[in-house]
Structure formats: structure tokens, C-alpha cells
Recover the amino acids of this structure.
């Protein structure tokens, strides 16, 4: 993070604006909106600045800039002249006096920069590229304008007018947050956004009258699939619950970019498991979910892929049911479908495979006990999860039970991410490839003639390919 974003109340601050041209006009507009006490220094000013100054009773000093005008009373200084040498001099003077300075279009000598701003009543959204590209910031703001309707300003106004009433009715501090979260995920929001303000107020008032604090403070668990790695593959519902949680228990396979989307002030607990290295045992994870939920928390259990496909999600909610803890399950894109899609290998295809089977390659007591005959079916794709450590066994057993040694296969490491690597081979040569290339978990193994389609159908440019 190059600049730390924060909002400041300028009604109590004095600001020095140096410059009287079009650039200064744009900065002055923002400062006036924020009700700042602005002093302008410039030998000449545009008619627009003169008009704004008169209407808002601003002080204009019609002289060339001099360091004598810098005063500790100013919270910050804005250099908005068309003289680059003068702007640099202003920045140096401000630094000497420990006054924050902004030099227009020169982020390298700024203490702070102005973001691109979107306003919706009391809602202010700012976008910054750290000065790298103001044009890109404006483009992103334009996108946000289409995503955030103007009616959100009304939503903020209604909440502001009713916050005290709700707070006075509730005894527990966290109840206030939970109540408004429920309102913003209910019919109330839709009514406001659709222009039915009277109906929205009626719905809100009824909800306030019928608040059951004991009920809204009951804990709940969100069992959420985070997908194979690409944050863009999260569902809308997953993202919404990630933003609501009080506590998150997350696995090793959940990418950092996805964790960045979790509510910032949530308590984060790592419970990742690697082969022969379980940071927290499964029964302990189950108990933690119950413990935190019983304390009234919204608990997010964030798992890579889909929680019900080799994710032990069934075991976790079985424990929740036994302890009468409420829960929701949000499916995620499982690694097989995500990795196959990003590597250009369709799991089914009319000319190659009419069925697909998912299998765990996880060893138990050094053995891999599977129904090998069932796996070896005509026109069937086999996908092994957690199969790296058992590659030798998989290849040996499949060929031993009748699968051709020349059957194509692919290993997809860290699929859907920028670090994705794809290795293609066949059953006979795959063990040697693994010894040589040393792929690392998470990696899935795809076996079947569908692998032959990869060269033609690959589309994800971030992929690094390896062919034995």
C-alpha cells in the first residue's frame, strides 16, 4: 500500500491553495464541498475562482508565492501552479515546516494525493492508483457509478435517522451491527433502491418494533467453498458472508488474495492441514466452530474448493447439528472443474468421455485402497485429488487392472492462479516426470483421452506448460 487512505473533517481545518488557474479550480471545488477554510495565493485568478471565493467568503492573496505565507495554522498545502520549479519549491518549504503538501500531477513529491471520488449522499467512495494512473482511477470510479445506484445515499440517510432509536432498544453492543446487517440483506434495501421509500420505512419500523435481541445474537456458522484459487470464481453469496463474519477458520488451500476479501476486523484462525502435519486436528476444528458460534459469533469456515468434495464439510456440519448450531453451506467451484477449465481439458466430451469420476489419492497407512476395476471404464475421465504422494501406486494399479500405459494424463498445479503449471504425460512415464519436475501440492491429476484436447483448447495465458 503506497498511500494510507483516511477521511478527514475539513470543516475545522485551514488549507492553503497556491495557484489561480484551471487546475486550482478543480481542487477548490473539492475543498468547498468539504467546507474547508481555504486561503488562495496567486497573482491572477480565473473568474470562476473569484466567483467561488466571493460566494464562500474565501481569502485571496493576489501576490506571487513566498515561503513567508506558510503558517502552522494550515493543515496542508496544495501546489496547483503551472510552474514546475515553483511547485517543487513549495513542496520543499512545506516539508521544512512539517506541513503536508500535495503537488498536482507530481505524486513523487507529494505527501498525499487526491483520489477519484464517487459520492452518494453521505456515502463517499474513493479510488486511487497511488498516483500511477489518474485516468485508470477515473475509469474505475465510472464502473463503480454503474454498480452503486444513487439511491444508496437515501439508504445511508434512513439508517442515520434511525440509528439512535435502534441503539436505545438494544442492550448488547454487537446487536446493533447484526440488526443493520440483517436490514441491508433484506427487503428493506430493495424497497429503498426501487424508490419505495414509504414502504421501506414501514418495513424498517416494523422490524425495529419486533426486535428479538436473543435471536439476533445467536451464533451461526457459514461453511463456504473458496474455489480452487482465483478470487473471481467466488460466488456472490460467499463474498457477502465473508464480509459479515466475526471469526474465520481457514485452510492452507485458501489463497491470500481470497483472505484479503474477508472482513478486515474478523478474528482469523489458521487451521490448515498438510500431509502428516495437521496444525489443528479435524475434531478440534469441529469443536472450535461450535465454541465460537455458541458465544454468538458469525463463524466463517472457509475451505478451498467445495466443502462437500473431499473437504470434510459433512463431518463439520454433522457436529453442528449435534450441538444445535445454525449453519449455512455455500458451495464452491471444486478443483477438478476449475483446474480442468483453466488448463483447457474438458472433463467430458462426446468424442472422448461420457462420464467422470472424482477420487481421493490420499494414502491411509501407506496404502491406497480403491475399487480399481470401477475406475477403469470405457470413455471415462478419472480425476485424483491429493494424489501426488501416491503417483507410483496410482499408475501401477491402473495399468495392472487393465488401463493402457499410453493413456494420457495431466497434472495441474495451483490451478486457476497465476502460478498455475500443467504437466502432460502418460501413465507409463508420469512417475519419472514427477521425480524430475517435482510438482507441489495443491495438484490434481486428470487421466483420460480428454487430455489430448489441451493443445487445441488451452486458453489461460498464465499457464506454464510442461510436456514429457
Amino acid at each position: 500500500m503506497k498511500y494510507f487512505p483516511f477521511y478527514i473533517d475539513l470543516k475545522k481545518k485551514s488549507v492553503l491553495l497556491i495557484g489561480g488557474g484551471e487546475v486550482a479550480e478543480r481542487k477548490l471545488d473539492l475543498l468547498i464541498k468539504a467546507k474547508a477554510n481555504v486561503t488562495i495565493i496567486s497573482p491572477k485568478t480565473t473568474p470562476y475562482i473569484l466567483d467561488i471565493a466571493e460566494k464562500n467568503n474565501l481569502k485571496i492573496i493576489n501576490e506571487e508565492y513566498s515561503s513567508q505565507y506558510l503558517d502552522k495554522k494550515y493543515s496542508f498545502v496544495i501546489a496547483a501552479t503551472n510552474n514546475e520549479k515553483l511547485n517543487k519549491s513549495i513542496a520543499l518549504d512545506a516539508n521544512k515546516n512539517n506541513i503536508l503538501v500535495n503537488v498536482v500531477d507530481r505524486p513523487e513529491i507529494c505527501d498525499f494525493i487526491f483520489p477519484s471520488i464517487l459520492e452518494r449522499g453521505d456515502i463517499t467512495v474513493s479510488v486511487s492508483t497511488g498516483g500511477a494512473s489518474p485516468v485508470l482511477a477515473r475509469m474505475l470510479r465510472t464502473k463503480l457509478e454503474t454498480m452503486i445506484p444513487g439511491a444508496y445515499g437515501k439508504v445511508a440517510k434512513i439508517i442515520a435517522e434511525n440509528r439512535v432509536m435502534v441503539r436505545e432498544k438494544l442492550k448488547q453492543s454487537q446487536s446493533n451491527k447484526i440488526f443493520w446487517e440483517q436490514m441491508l440483506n433484506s427487503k428493506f434495501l430493495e424497497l429503498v433502491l426501487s424508490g419505495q421509500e414509504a414502504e421501506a420505512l414501514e418495513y424498517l419500523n416494523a422490524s425495529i418494533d419486533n426486535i428479538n435481541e436473543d435471536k439476533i445474537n445467536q451464533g451461526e456458522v457459514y461453511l463456504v467453498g473458496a474455489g480452487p484459487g482465483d478470487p473471481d470464481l467466488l460466488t456472490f453469496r460467499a463474498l457477502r458472508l465473508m464480509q459479515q463474519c466475526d471469526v474465520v477458520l481457514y485452510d492452507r488451500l485458501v489463497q491470500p488474495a481470497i483472505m484479503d476479501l474477508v472482513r478486515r476486523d474478523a478474528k482469523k484462525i489458521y487451521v490448515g492441514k498438510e500431509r502428516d502435519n495437521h496444525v489443528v486436528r479435524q475434531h478440534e476444528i469441529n469443536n472450535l466452530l461450535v465454541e465460537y458460534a455458541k458465544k454468538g459469533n458469525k463463524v466463517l469456515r472457509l475451505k478451498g474448493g467445495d466443502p462437500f468434495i473431499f473437504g470434510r464439510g459433512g463431518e463439520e456440519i454433522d457436529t453442528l447439528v449435534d450441538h444445535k448450531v445454525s449453519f449455512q453451506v455455500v458451495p464452491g467451484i471444486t478443483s477438478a472443474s476449475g483446474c480442468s477449465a483453466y488448463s483447457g481439458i474438458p472433463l467430458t466430451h462426446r468424442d472422448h468421455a461420457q462420464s467422470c469420476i472424482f477420487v481421493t489419492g490420499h494414502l491411509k497407512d501407506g496404502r491406497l485402497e480403491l475399487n480399481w476395476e470401477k475406475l477403469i471404464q470405457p470413455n471415462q475421465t478419472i480425476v485424483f485429488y491429493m494424489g501426488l504422494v501416491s503417483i507410483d501406486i496410482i499408475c501401477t494399479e491402473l495399468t495392472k487392472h487393465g488401463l493402457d500405459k499410453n493413456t494420457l494424463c495431466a497434472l495441474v498445479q495451483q490451478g486457476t492462479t497465476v502460478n498455475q503449471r500443467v504437466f502432460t504425460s502418460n501413465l507409463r512415464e508420469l512417475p519419472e516426470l514427477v521425480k524430475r519436475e517435482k510438482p507441489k501440492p495443491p495438484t490434481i491429476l486428470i487421466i483420460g483421452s480428454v487430455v489430448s484436447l489441451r493443445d487445441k483448447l488451452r486458453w489461460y495465458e498464465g499457464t506454464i506448460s510442461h510436456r514429457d
Q: What stands out?
A: The first strand starts at residue 14 and ends at 18. The chain is about 35% helix and 20% strand.
